[in-house]
């Protein structure tokens, strides 16, 4: 058997065949000049040092941490404005495609807290009705639309954001009693507001422009249950026996 010597190592040697120490040092310095302390190739995209390790700096063009976690305050503000102004027809499609749940979770927690301040412990009912109602409405609208499909997260986002008018009514429930004619009228107005906003969102997403009453009917029933939580209070009859 014959063995052939490879010339791979010789291709990196200078023409004289010897590698000097200065040549190695120059090569090391030229290689290390492109790498900074943070380990980034290039001209120092990240600032090295101990303070930079605990800072908020990042790569150029990198989105913020809250946005990577799905919390976009600009989208929350735009979607809240769209709910508060249901008569607006030109809804931004980017807002409609956003599956943000930070706003709905905030509104639901605020709704339950305001009910608690008014003497109504309804967190279990809010969770049960919210989960069952959202899942039922999602699959109902999904079966109604054949052209456009929507996922459960987007449906939950739309339904949760449109709960905002009832949250505003629950603020009044902390101050005054809503178990009267004024409370009934305000709650009915809030339910219609929620229904109109949510139906507008779903009609725009699912392109069901000729079926808006069919979309609004189950949404109205859903928000009416939350309105009952705002209005009525569980009253316990206490019987005192006199001996």
From TrEMBL:
GO cellular-component term (any): COPII-coated ER to Golgi transport vesicle
Subcellular location: Golgi apparatus membrane; Membrane
UniProt-listed GO biological process terms: endoplasmic reticulum to Golgi vesicle-mediated transport; vesicle fusion with Golgi apparatus
Record-annotated Yip1 domain positions: 94-229
Pfam families: Yip1
Recorded topology in the membrane: Multi-pass membrane protein
Alphabetical keyword list: Membrane, Transmembrane, Transmembrane helix
InterPro entries: Yip1/4-like, Yip1_dom
TM annotation in the entry: 101-119, 125-144, 156-178, 184-205, 214-233
Similarity remark: Belongs to the YIP1 family.
Alphabetical list of PANTHER family matching this protein: GOLGI MEMBRANE PROTEIN YIP1, PROTEIN YIPF
The protein's name in its UniProt record: Protein YIP
Species: Scheffersomyces stipitis (strain ATCC 58785 / CBS 6054 / NBRC 10063 / NRRL Y-11545)
């Amino acid at each position: 058997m014959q063995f052939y010597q490879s010339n791979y190592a010789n291709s990196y040697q200078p023409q004289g065949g010897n590698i000097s120490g200065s040549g190695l040092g120059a090569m090391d310095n030229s290689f290390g000049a492109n790498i900074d302390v943070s380990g980034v190739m290039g001209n120092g995209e990240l600032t090295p040092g101990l303070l930079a390790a605990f800072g908020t700096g990042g790569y150029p063009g990198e989105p913020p941490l809250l946005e990577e976690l799905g919390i976009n305050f600009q989208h929350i503000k735009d979607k809240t404005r769209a709910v508060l102004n249901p008569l607006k027809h030109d809804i931004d499609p980017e807002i409609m495609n956003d599956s943000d749940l930070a706003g709905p979770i905030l509104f639901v927690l605020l709704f339950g807290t305001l009910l608690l301040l008014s003497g109504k412990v309804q967190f279990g009912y809010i969770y049960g009705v919210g989960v069952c109602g959202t899942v039922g409405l999602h699959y109902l609208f999904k079966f109604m639309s054949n052209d456009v499909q929507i996922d459960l997260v987007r449906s939950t986002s739309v339904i949760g954001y449109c709960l905002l008018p009832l949250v505003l009514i629950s603020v009044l429930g902390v101050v005054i009693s809503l178990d009267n004619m004024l409370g009934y009228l305000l709650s009915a107005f809030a339910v219609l507001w929620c229904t109109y906003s949510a139906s507008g969102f779903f009609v725009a997403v699912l392109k069901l422009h000729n079926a808006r009453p069919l979309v609004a009917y189950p949404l109205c029933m859903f928000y009416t249950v939350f309105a009952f939580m705002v209005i009525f209070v569980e009253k316990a009859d206490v019987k005192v026996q006199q001996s």
